[in-house]
């Protein structure tokens, strides 16, 4: 029996599915999947969203429906975004007011947890929409549809899987009535009364019950009482019949009162139906009366349920509906007919209105509207339809017709379609004609010309060949025209060619007639007829002079006689050339014509042809005119000469005066043009200087003044040096402050844990304040005067140190080897102090360039010697990678990280509602804590679970899914911020990534591109960005106030984002212990591809030489020498390390480093470095003084050991520089085309004088320069030489340089000129880069000052905190969160009233879990008194056994909350009492805080 009942339930549910399917198909006008597949087909929510669009189009549009064509669903199944469709359906139902009691959950649909609930909701929605008049009523198909036993059994199994109670579909009407009713009881009573009245069959009584306000019925018309009674009685009988069928398979308890009674919605629906029929009758009557106004009012009645009508088209509604009515056999229009007709007529009315207002856009939209129902309308021709309709509309208005009818509009559309078809046919015909022309077949060309669709006029079939020739020639000309867009002949061109061919035919007949008549006249010897024959053939008859008739005849006769003498064989064919390209043949005997040479062609050679006849009379006329004019010139020679002379003079004078006046009128414009020409010349010269491989001397001479140093150059160099010193010093100071603050953090942390005494912390605080106020001045305000501040004896040593550090700075191989010789912990310290100091933390272009060269050399060395596998770079901790990341995250790259990540990280931190926890166990514990805290009852759930067990709880899965969705959304923001900010990534970091990729590829040529890019990603993301995302407060990504910190939830959110990005960057999917996150694997793959492109593009950077414009001469041409700021201690430490590892760093004895170390000797002490007298030997604090002096910074101006000295140059490079300076001095004052020409040409006295003045001016400028920027003595002496002596010295130097291969006399020393041109270009770039460096240094200094201010604020905060601790120390001893104490209360303490519980009561509440060595039945003898102390959050708990005080403990609410956060569920009090932490917190909150 039970089995049968389940089968019946499955069958009934299948019927409900079929009902929902058919109803949705009617609403959507679309076919849905079969009934047995409907549940699965609805899961993606597409059909539900389309249904929402049907009843709430303002809420849901087609664009908002995800995967509307279901292409993605068919290809790869469900996607999480499909849930958006279900959500839109739920919101749409909410917007129309369907009670929420019917709504399913999103997971019921998407995860198929409760599909029957969704079908139940669709049934409720159908009834509700039917009541609103929006949709038809759903059918009752129970017992009317058949399903196979297999289908029913399968559905029964599916329903058993759901494990849910089947919703009662029969109770939907009652529930809907209850939910929507204001007064449920009154509505129910009113509906019962209506049903009873219907049963009685008395229409008057029924209408009274329908009028009852409690029934909430609308549009009830007393005059339709009988119709209401009849319709309602029939509906009630149908429902009773269906109820009897259902009761066979439904138990008595499940039956509903409304199974046999009509619901309020059903009653209203039947009233609407009767009203609609009555309204249709009224409309038909009004149409028959013929009054447009009455017809319009009848159509407007809401009971008619017709589309909107428009008053301005009342006459059209009347006429058209009247015509339709007459066409109907019953002379009556049903509601469906009226609905279609009114909808179409309203659309026509709107179309007419748009035509009247000349609104083209509205006309086109109305034509596209499906409601208007036009046939054969092609949307691609809507504009053509619109233009044609506008024309017809204007004609109709001119004839007094207000509106175009539907038929007239349809006829217009058909007419346009015919025109378009004819145009298309004509285009096809044109194509055929062009194809025939190309084939060269005259007959085929003739056939295509005669095509009716082509409509070519005046085609004569006898001239097919000529048509072919003319058309072919026209097409050939068009193909040769480069400006012609089309390469085919169009219709007008074809017609023109045909007309041209016809004209040729007429012209040929005219000339043939002339030839025959003239020749026959000559043969018959009739001179009197010659004029009458020539005149008709001439364009201008006045050209034929009657007086010359005899001469014409004689000349022609003579020509014919001459031509006849040479004729041997005479034929009958005449040949003409038309337009000099077409041949025309005529047979004078047979009158036959041909456009091609006939096979029997034999010309009549004795006759004069047309051109010969024309040439005779034209030549005669021209000769006569020429003779007359020549005779006139001979007779008037003198006069002609005078006229020509006068005319030339007047013309020349007029032109001169006009041009002179023009210049005066446009004086300003001429000046501008001249200025522009000069500017263009200068620009061209500069382009030659910059772009030419061998710029000429004349161009270089124009720009040598750019090499001069001005006062502004000196001031900017000094400002750069000052700022650089201040930046380096500030970096050192901030590093020291940061170290001390970190140590203070540790000490305070140990204080909290009672590991050290408060006095230790106070001692460190005192030291910190001293550094802040006094001792730090040593680091920040040391008088850095370089070697001039030291004793004379130590000068030589420091000069050697300057040369040593210059060598280390410019030759990266030494430091690269030194780094790998030291232990890692020692190399890290050496790197942070000495190396970055040596390069001034890359505070300018030169030092950044050199530091990058060091990184490159060291990285290549490390990969070459220490990397055995590709993955060693990722799994290990390479020293150079660590150096690069440390440097770029330091003062130089910190601002970049801040720009990259600060906005998006701040957004994550500011989102207080954001919670991301992807650990199922933690989510589970938090959920259990929440349950117990809210209810105050012990949870029956276990406290310790595994990940798999936690995931079995739906609540955990839901929270986990929400976290994953939040995680994906937030990760997208961070990813977009990173990828869109590639240009912000430091150049140095990108270059090292490029070096890393190339070095790995070189050592491991088999490595794939993916492997290489993963290594690049490990550097750029994991090592550089990832820590800053996890701990933005630790890397100054965000601003933190003193004492402020990121809370654990925020930290976990950031950590989750970083974890996802880390997996994506390395293309590592979530597996194993992270299997619960596998739904993100597709997202990880997509993100990896984004990262891959990002890493690949990041490596696309130029070399440092190109980026910074550096070469081997850069240090020589710069104004100021490079300077570093380094402490004595660091100098001594570096010296010691170099000596210790000298053999490994410089194994060659001749190495320059060995020479410098030998000059320096042993490692000096601080005292010996400073020299005697630097420290008082009797000073009792000598050690402390030396320790402070060791930290004293000095400035070293780095120089090469082989810079130019006071004598001659040592090598070719320095000699080249010296010679360039001399050449520049010479070419300033002596011009010439080549350097050889200048050197061989003696200087004039004026040139010597100008040169001497220039040298005096330079000496004055040099005297104003700072000491470290002045030229060497040899340079100054060379500058004072006279011009001729300089030229001789240049010649000697050039001969030397030619011997060393630096220059060549064969190309006139162009090499040295190229070097001068390069110096000029570099000088401009140097000035530009110096200005940029100034701005960057100022920005960096500002950031460092802000950071220093933050550290000082942090010191003040710690100071306040420690003072508070001292005050508390004085007041009482520090207290632990739980302290054992057997004594009574402190005296004078205010105590609140204690709260007393027995152990049994606490055990009953679940707070107490057990007491060691005590049975449960003894709990009633144990009492606990809980008292709130004077300190907020501190509670005393006393225990008593049989009334005797036993022990006391103190509880701190903050410690309990910390335990709860850490997931500690159970704790011990008195070392024996086990309590539930969550419920204890709940108890304290409830009793003491009222929570």
Written description of the protein model:
The protein has 61 helices and 12 strands. It is flat, with a radius of gyration of 53 Å. 63% of the residues lie in helices and 4% in strands. The strands form 4 sheets. Strands 6-8-9-10 form a 4-stranded antiparallel β-sheet. Strands 1-2-3 form a 3-stranded antiparallel β-sheet. The two termini are 54 Å apart. The protein has 1491 residues and is mainly alpha-helical. Helix 33 (812-821) packs across helix 35 (845-866).
In short:
The chain is mostly helical and 1491 residues long.
Structural topology:
Elements lengths: L1 H27 L9 H5 L3 H10 L15 H6 L6 H14 L9 H5 L4 H18 L16 H14 L9 H9 L3 H17 L2 H9 L13 H22 L17 H26 L2 H9 L13 H14 L7 H22 L3 H9 L13 H17 L7 H34 L2 H8 L14 H17 L10 H34 L5 H5 L14 H17 L7 E6 L3 E6 L5 E2 L15 H26 L1 H29 L1 H25 L5 H7 L7 H42 L5 H18 L1 H4 L14 H16 L1 H10 L2 H15 L6 H22 L5 H4 L3 H10 L5 H17 L9 H16 L11 H4 L3 H26 L7 H17 L5 H22 L17 H18 L15 H18 L5 H5 L5 H4 L5 E5 H13 L1 H4 L6 H9 L5 H5 L11 H9 L2 E5 L14 H18 L5 H6 L4 H20 L8 H7 L3 H17 L10 H62 L23 E4 H7 L2 E4 L10 E7 L5 E8 L2 E9 H9 L4 E4 L3 E4 H13 L2
Helix pairs in contact: 1-7, 1-8, 3-5, 7-13, 10-11, 11-12, 12-13, 13-14, 14-15, 15-16, 16-17, 17-18, 18-19, 19-20, 20-21, 21-22, 27-28, 29-30, 29-58, 30-58, 32-50, 33-34, 33-35, 35-37, 35-42, 38-41, 39-41, 39-61, 41-44, 42-43, 43-44, 43-45, 44-45, 53-55, 53-57, 60-61
Label the structural class. mainly alpha
Head-to-tail CA distance between termini: 54 Å
Strand content: under 5%
Low-confidence stretches: 752-759, 773-791, 1203-1210, 1372-1391
Enumerate the strands of the largest sheet in spatial order, edge to edge or round the barrel: 6-8-9-10
Number of strands: 12
Total number of helices: 61
Radius of gyration: 53 Å
Please, what is the average pLDDT? Answer: 78
Helix content: 55-70%
């Amino acid at each position: 029996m039970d089995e049968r009942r389940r089968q019946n339930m499955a069958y009934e549910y299948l019927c409900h599915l079929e009902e929902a399917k058919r109803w949705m198909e009617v609403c959507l006008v679309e076919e849905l999947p079969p009934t047995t597949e409907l549940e699965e087909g609805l899961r993606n929510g597409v059909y539900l969203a389309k249904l929402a669009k049907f009843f709430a189009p303002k809420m849901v549009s087609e664009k908002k429906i995800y995967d509307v064509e279901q292409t993605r669903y068919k290809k790869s199944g469900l996607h999480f975004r499909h849930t958006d469709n279900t959500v839109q359906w739920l919101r749409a139902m909410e917007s129309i007011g369907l009670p929420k009691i019917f709504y399913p959950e999103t997971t019921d649909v998407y995860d198929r947890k409760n599909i029957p609930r969704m079908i139940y909701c669709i049934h409720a929605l159908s009834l509700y929409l039917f009541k609103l008049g929006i949709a038809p009523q759903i059918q009752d198909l129970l017992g009317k549809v058949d399903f196979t036993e297999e289908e029913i059994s399968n559905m029964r199994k599916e329903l058993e899987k759901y494990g849910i109670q089947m919703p009662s579909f029969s109770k939907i009407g009652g529930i809907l009535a209850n939910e929507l009713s204001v007064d449920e009881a009154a509505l129910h009573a009113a509906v019962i009364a209506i049903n009873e009245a219907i049963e009685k069959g008395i229409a008057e009584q029924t209408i009274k019950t329908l009028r009852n306000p409690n029934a909430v019925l609308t549009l009830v018309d007393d005059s339709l009482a009988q119709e209401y009674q009849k319709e309602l009685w029939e509906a009630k009988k149908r429902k009773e019949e269906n109820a009897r069928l259902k009761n066979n398979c439904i138990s008595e308890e499940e039956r509903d009162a409304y199974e046999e009674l009509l619901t309020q919605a059903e009653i209203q629906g039947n009233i609407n139906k009767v009203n609609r029929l009555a309204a249709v009758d009224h409309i038909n009557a009004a149409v028959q009366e013929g009054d447009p106004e009455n017809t319009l009012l009848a159509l407007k009645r809401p009971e008619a349920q017709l589309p909107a009508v428009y008053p301005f088209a009342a006459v059209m509604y009347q006429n058209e509906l009247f015509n339709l009515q007459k066409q109907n056999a019953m002379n009556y229009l049903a509601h469906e007919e009226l609905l279609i007709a009114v909808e179409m007529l309203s659309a026509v009315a709107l179309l007419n209105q748009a035509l009247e207002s000349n609104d083209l856009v509205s006309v086109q939209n109305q034509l596209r509207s499906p409601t208007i129902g036009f046939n054969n309308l092609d949307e691609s021709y809507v504009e053509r339809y619109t233009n044609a309709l506008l024309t017809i509309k204007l004609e109709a208005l001119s004839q007094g017709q207000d509106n175009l009818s539907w038929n007239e509009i349809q006829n217009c559309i058909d007419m346009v379609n015919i025109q378009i078809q004819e145009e298309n046919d004509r285009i096809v015909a044109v194509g055929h004609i062009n194809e025939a022309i190309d084939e060269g077949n005259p007959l085929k060309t003739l056939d295509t010309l005669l095509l009716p669709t082509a409509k070519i006029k005046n085609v004569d079939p006898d001239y097919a060949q000529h048509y072919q020739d003319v058309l072919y020639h026209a097409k050939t000309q068009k193909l040769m025209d480069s400006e012609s867009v089309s390469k085919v002949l169009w219709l007008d061109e074809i017609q023109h060619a045909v007309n041209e061919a016809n004209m040729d035919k007429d012209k040929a007949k005219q000339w043939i007639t002339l030839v025959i008549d003239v020749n026959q006249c000559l043969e018959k010897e009739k001179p009197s007829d010659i004029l009458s024959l020539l005149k008709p053939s001439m364009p201008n008859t006045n050209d034929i002079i009657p007086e010359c008739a005899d001469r014409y005849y004689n000349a022609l006769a003579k020509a014919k006689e001459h031509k006849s003498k040479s004729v041997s064989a005479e034929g009958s064919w005449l040949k003409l050339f038309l337009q000099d390209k077409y041949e025309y043949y005529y047979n004078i005997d047979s009158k036959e014509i041909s456009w091609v040479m006939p096979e029997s062609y034999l010309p009549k050679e004795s006759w004069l042809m047309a051109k010969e006849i024309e040439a005779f009379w034209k030549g005669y006329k021209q000769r006569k005119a020429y003779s007359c004019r020549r005779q006139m010139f001979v007779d008037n020679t003198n006069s002609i000469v005078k006229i020509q002379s006068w005319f030339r003079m007047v013309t020349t004078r007029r032109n001169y005066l006009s041009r002179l006046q023009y210049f005066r009128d446009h004086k300003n414009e001429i000046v501008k043009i001249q200025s522009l020409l000069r500017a263009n010349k200068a620009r061209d010269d500069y382009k030659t200087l910059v772009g030419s491989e061998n710029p000429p001397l004349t161009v270089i001479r124009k720009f040598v003044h750019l090499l001069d140093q001005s006062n502004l150059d000196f001031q900017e160099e000094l400002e750069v040096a000052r700022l650089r010193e201040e930046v380096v010093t500030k970096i050192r100071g901030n590093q020291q402050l940061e170290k001390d603050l970190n140590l203070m953090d540790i000490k305070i942390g140990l204080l909290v844990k009672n590991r050290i005494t408060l006095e230790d912390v106070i001692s460190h605080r005192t030291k910190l304040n001293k550094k802040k106020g006094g001792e730090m001045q040593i680091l920040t305000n040391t008088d850095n005067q370089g070697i001039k501040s030291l004793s004379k004896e130590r000068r030589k040593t420091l000069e050697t140190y300057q040369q040593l550090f210059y060598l280390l700075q410019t030759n990266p191989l030494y430091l690269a080897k030194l780094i790998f010789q030291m232990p890692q912990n020692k190399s890290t310290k050496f790197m942070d102090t000495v190396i970055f100091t040596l390069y001034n933390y890359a505070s300018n272009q030169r030092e950044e360039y050199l530091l990058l060269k060091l990184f490159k050399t060291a990285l290549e060395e490390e990969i070459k010697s220490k990397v055995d596998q590709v993955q060693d770079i990722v799994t290990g901790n390479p020293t150079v990678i660590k150096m690069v990341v440390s440097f770029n995250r330091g003062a130089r790259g910190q601002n970049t990280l801040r720009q990259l990540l600060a906005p998006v990280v701040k957004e994550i931190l500011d989102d207080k509602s954001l919670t991301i926890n992807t650990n199922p166990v933690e989510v589970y514990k938090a959920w259990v804590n929440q349950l117990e805290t809210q209810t105050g009852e012990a949870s029956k759930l276990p406290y310790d679970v595994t990940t798999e067990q936690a995931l079995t709880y739906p609540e955990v899965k839901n929270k986990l899914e929400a976290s994953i969705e939040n995680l994906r959304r937030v990760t997208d923001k961070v990813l977009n911020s990173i990828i869109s900010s590639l240009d912000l990534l430091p150049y140095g970091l990108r270059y090292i990534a490029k070096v890393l990729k190339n070095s790995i590829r070189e050592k491991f040529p088999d490595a794939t591109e993916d492997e290489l890019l993963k290594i690049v990603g490990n550097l750029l993301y994991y090592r550089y960005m990832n820590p800053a995302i996890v701990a933005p407060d630790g890397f100054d990504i965000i601003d933190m106030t003193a004492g402020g910190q990121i809370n654990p939830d925020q930290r976990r959110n950031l950590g989750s984002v970083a974890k996802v990005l880390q997996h994506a960057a390395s293309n590592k999917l979530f597996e194993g212990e992270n299997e619960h996150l596998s739904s993100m694997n597709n997202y990880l793959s997509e993100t990896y591809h984004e990262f891959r492109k990002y890493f690949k593009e990041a490596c696309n950077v130029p070399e440092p030489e190109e980026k910074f414009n550096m070469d081997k001469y850069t240090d020589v041409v710069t104004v100021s020498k490079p300077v570093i700021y380094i402490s004595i201690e660091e100098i001594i430490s570096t010296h010691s390390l170099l000596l210790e590892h000298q053999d490994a760093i410089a194994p060659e004895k001749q190495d320059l480093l060995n020479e410098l170390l030998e000059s320096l000797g042993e490692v000096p002490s601080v005292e010996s470095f400073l020299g005697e007298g630097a420290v008082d030997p009797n000073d009792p604090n000598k050690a402390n003084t030396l320790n402070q002096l060791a930290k004293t910074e000095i400035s070293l101006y780095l120089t090469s050991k082989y810079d130019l000295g006071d004598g001659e140059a040592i090598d070719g490079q320095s000699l080249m520089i010296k010679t360039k300076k001399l050449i520049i001095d010479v070419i300033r004052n002596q011009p010439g085309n080549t350097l050889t020409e200048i050197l061989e040409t003696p200087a004039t006295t004026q040139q010597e004088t100008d040169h001497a003045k220039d040298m005096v001016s330079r000496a004055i400028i040099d005297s104003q320069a700072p000491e470290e920027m002045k030229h060497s003595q040899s340079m100054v002496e060379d500058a004072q030489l006279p011009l001729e002596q300089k030229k001789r010295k240049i010649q000697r130097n050039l001969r030397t340089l030619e011997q060393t291969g630096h220059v060549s006399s064969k190309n006139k020393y162009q090499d040295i000129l190229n070097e001068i041109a390069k110096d000029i270009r570099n000088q401009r770039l140097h000035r530009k880069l110096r200005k940029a460096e100034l701005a960057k240094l100022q920005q960096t200094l500002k950031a460092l000052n802000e950071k220093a201010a933050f550290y000082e604020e942090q010191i003040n905060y710690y100071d306040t905190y420690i003072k508070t601790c001292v005050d508390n120390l004085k007041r009482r001893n520090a207290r632990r969160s739980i302290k054992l104490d057997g004594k009574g209360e402190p005296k004078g303490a205010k105590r609140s009233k204690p709260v007393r519980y027995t152990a049994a009561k606490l055990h009953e509440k679940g707070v107490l879990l057990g007491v060691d060595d005590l049975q449960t039945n003894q709990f009633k003898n144990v009492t606990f008194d809980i008292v709130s102390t004077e300190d907020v959050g501190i509670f005393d708990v006393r225990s008593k056994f049989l009334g005797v005080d036993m022990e006391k403990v103190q509880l701190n609410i903050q410690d309990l909350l910390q335990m709860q956060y850490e997931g500690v569920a159970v704790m011990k009090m008195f070392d024996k009492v086990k309590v539930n932490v969550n419920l204890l917190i709940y108890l304290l909150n409830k009793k003491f805080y009222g929570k």
